[in-house]
Amino acid sequence: MEIRKNVGKVTPEERDEIQALFERKNGLTELAKIISADNTELYEKLVKDMGETGTKFQQWWDMKSKQYGWESHPKGNWEINFQTCEITLIAKEA
Amino acid sequence: MLQYLIILLDDKSVSYCHYELPSDVSREESLMPLDTLRAGIVFAMKENLNIQFVYPEQALSAEYAEVIESIDHTKIKPEAQAKEADVLVLAEWKKQIPDDVEGATCIIRASRKELQENLEQVKDLLGKVMRLNVVLTDIEAFKDEDVAGYQSLLEALSDLLIDQFKIGRMVQLNLLTDRLLLTQMNNCGAGDTTLSLAPNGKFYLCPAFYYDDPEQDVGNLKDGLNIKNRQLMRLDHAPICRHCDAYQCKRCIWMNCRLTLDANTPSHQQCVVAHVGRNASRNLLKKMAEQGIHMSDTHEIKEINYLDPFNNYKKWK
Amino acid sequence: MAKSITFIVTKDCQLACKYCYLVGKNTKERMSWEVAKQAIDYILDREEEFREESVIWDFIGGEPFLEIDLIDKICDYLKTEMYRRNHHWFNSYRFSFSTNGINYHTEKVQRFIEKNRNHLSIGITIDGTERKHDLNRIWKTPEMEQGIMPKAEEERGSYKDVVKNIPLWLEQFPGAGTKVTISSADLPYIKESVLHLYSLGIKEVNINCVFEDVWKEGDDQLFEEQLTELADAIIDGRLYEDHACSFFQEHIGKPMDRERDNQNWCGAGMMLAVDAAGMFYPCTRFAQYSLRSKSAWIIGNIHDGIDKNKLRPFLTLDRCTQSTEECITCEVASGCAWCQGENFDAADTHTVYQRSTAICKMHKARVRANNYYWNKLFRKLELQEYEEQKRKSNCKACEI
Fold it and tell me: CB of B128 within 8 Å of any CB in chain C?
């Protein structure tokens, strides 16, 4: 059974930060489907960028969860609602 | 409200404004038929309109003269028919300025380049007439990189005016002195205050529309006027112009229709040319003050930091 | 704010909807890759001129999915180029489609969706019940291209060909809404159609009356009756809790201030459209195939660029300058929409400053039904709240 629980809220500025990273991450993921290794210049840029963006993305969640003390779950993850800035914990109960 | 009726006596009536006569004006019956002329005059009388007759190069017969003289009017004439002209359109740049221009308003149609090359003749003209209207024929071709050149040209014309003022001749040059005297828009008024009647008996917003395409009429003498969307000719329906203080701008709706495709919207070129002119008037006023020259009914012109009011539009909105 | 850039990839469509404003549809004008590429290069080369934060790359037809191979190539190029150039739009873009839904399930379209899943917005047009949908949305026949229209009994509706794809679409885009167009003949079917779309699982129904001058005597009464019955069904069935119908909006039907509420309704001029010939337009509605009685309003082309003079009338448009005094002082003005393209097409002169008022009586009818909807809904919610309060206070009394 899935648990959904509202665990906090971020500021609109913080929302903008993670939304931009989210968009970029999605863009890079979809770009990766069409850029082959033959395109050396773009491929290398993309691989590096995916790594960096992924790290920044994770860092944001680590930092904010610590800052706000969001409730967590060993089998769960947080989601943000870009409209309301609310953070939801989504977890699977055993 | 309509106030003026411009009657083109002939298809080859002289151009006194931005439009060129088509090179193929060779309509067989190019002269306005007498009946049409008479009907046009009656129309103007009934509508209380002041008539401005625009003459061709060739002389008109006595019959025409008689009909024309049946009503109070203004004569816009080419140089070849200068006699009794109220407004005289000079044909070309000449070394010799005709003597009979005195008293009339003179019109010169010229590009900026021609004006620059003929400053000596402009100087002579300013010494003879009390008002000179320069109609720029190359506004559509104006580019942003032309601003500095046009500013210098107007600067040079300002100096010529100052020379006249110093000797007590308070001559007017439309490009520079009109703005000094205005406190509100004084536009051409085509379709709003002014209409034109062509030799075919049809009405047009202005002669330029007739020469572009005779099918663009806004009524005729038989059925009367039929001006669609007339409100768009008025200042209050021109979103850019109604906020603007380049009061001397002609706000040429013919050029609007050509360049922006909408009668109430001026092009970037028209706005920039008008604003360079406006600012040159401001400089002229400053120079006059510095030199102790007084012209009655002049008004202060504010400093502004734009040449195209379109760029300020969002602020006004 | 997002810039909307529309590729008119084809002027062809499998359908010949009777209310379609695209009067010049044809099979010949299909965009080539060369034109698409040049348009993209023109736009991306000018990042300074296109400063909007986001971009919506919109694909329209005719039916855009008829050109899925080209679209796929365009989207791949867009993604690659936006990234290669470090263009700010790479961080915020969408690919948007309005489709008739007929080819939605095909392998090519599905492969495209899979590839671009996170950047897609796809709207399938389904007009309601089968009889309502098939009243207008009929298959094109080869004879139609010769101007020969089929007899009513020979017309073939497209409902079944579309509805089969709705479950897949909703599975892939659960929050997707559909767009319904109402013309005179559709009026008796509004209520059943909206409810039918809800029953298909579509939660958001964006619906509007056509802007063209097609409305007959009595249409407004019929419209009002349908909307009132729909209001009853939505409220009595508690559908308002998780469904939306754009006909009912709380803040429409009020007077508007000349100064404060003077903005233009539509985004023509802020958008950009390009067609198969490489011509740019302020919106697709200004391309020749959309216009009945005017010539296209072309603002440039992929070779010479955009002539900004031809955009100025659009960028300075406001509500009052284009409206009659009757519209400006109308007591139910808010929410009364217009389409700049239709205004232009119906105008007496070559202008975008003459607002068409063909929709006036339909708007007024909508406002009356809308007022009914909100009065009824608010009263219901008020009474519910009252009952709830009463229940709570009774419980407290019990506790004592």
Answer: no
Torsion of CA B93, B99, B105, B111, to 10 degrees: 10
CATH architecture entry for C1-124+269-316? Alpha-Beta Barrel (3.20)
Contact yes or no for B265 and C316 at CB 8 A: yes
Decide if B131 touches C, using CB distance below 8 A: no
Cβ of A30 within 8 Å of Cβ of C91? The answer is no
Chains B and A touch (3+ CB pairs under 8 A): no
pLDDT digits (tens, 9 = 90+) for C247-301: 999 999 999 999 999 999 989 999 999 999 999 999 999 999 899 999 999 999 9
Find the helix or strand (DSSP H, E) in which B53 lies.
Answer: strand B50-54
Å between B189 CA and nearest CA of chain C: 18
C186: its two tokens:
């559709």
Measure in Å the smallest separation between the Cα of B91 and chain C Cα atoms. Answer: 32
Tell me how far apart the alpha carbons of residues B109 and B135 are, in angstroms, rounded to a whole number: 5
List chain C domain ranges: 1-124+269-316, 126-248+359-400
A50 vs chain C: nearest CA distance in angstroms? Answer: 12
Q: What is the mean pLDDT of chain A?
A: 93
Does the beta-carbon distance from C312 to B229 stay under 8 Å? no
**What are the chain A neighbours of C57 within 8 Å (beta carbons)?**
none
Report residue B101's pLDDT band, with 50, 70 and 90 as the boundaries: low
List the structure tokens of B305: 């930091």
Q: What is the pTM of this model?
A: 0.92
pLDDT one-digit tens code per residue, C357-392: 999 999 999 999 999 999 999 999 988 888 888 888
**Three-state secondary structure readout of A28-85:** HHHHHCCCCCCCHHHHHHHHHHHHHHHHHHHHHHHHHHHHHCCCCCCCEEEEECCCCC
Count of domains for chain A: 1
Q: Which residues of A touch C76 (CB under 8 A)?
A: 34
Closest by Cβ to C309, choosing from B228, B259, B263? B259
**Minimal Cβ distance to C115: which of A27, A33, A45:** A33
Range of the domain at A66: 2-92
Chains interfacing with C (3 or more CB pairs < 8 Å) = A, B
